Amino acid sequence: MNGYRGASRFVSMGVALLFVGSLLLSQACGGGGGGGGGRVPPVMRFVCSGGVAPSPDQVSLSCPATSGSPLLVSVIIGGATTSTDIYGIKFDLVFSPTVMTFDGPAIEGTFLNQGGVATTLIASSSPGDPGRVVVSITRTGAVSGTQATTTQTTVMTLSFAATGVAGSTSLTFENTEVVDSMTPTPTPIASVNFTSSPLTVSFQ
Length: 204
Hints:
By secondary structure, the chain is mainly beta.
């Protein structure tokens, strides 16, 4: 009888060990209904750098250090500006369309609509050139221009969506102009300039 009990106990222990081994193997392979259990790929994000500190009489670009898609890029003006008659701002933004695309519409900031004046804001991809956004914003009506008086004021915010392709691009101003309220022809304001330092935007 003792031999029988010993053999029975040995068999029971063997079954238990076999069960535990099968359970561990099942967990290691991602067992039951959970799918393949493979490595989860990292989430890709925008990384933005190269922005300059706001300075008086300068239009510049600003964006968060990291962001999912879309990436929000702010166009800001530093004050106090020399001119007190800024009526309109226009520019192109140039970038690589293999990395990102313009995701309109643009969102107006708080600069040119000061005093409750209505504005006209246009921002669209250039026909035949998906790596260029053509932008203009002006006050409307027979009113004078305005002035930047704080360290920085947002002119507008532009949104860019990832194409899904990893890569890097610069975001650069071209064809820039700031004008006053002179009629019938607004006059360019030479004292207000645009930064020559581009942003560097990577999707990774």
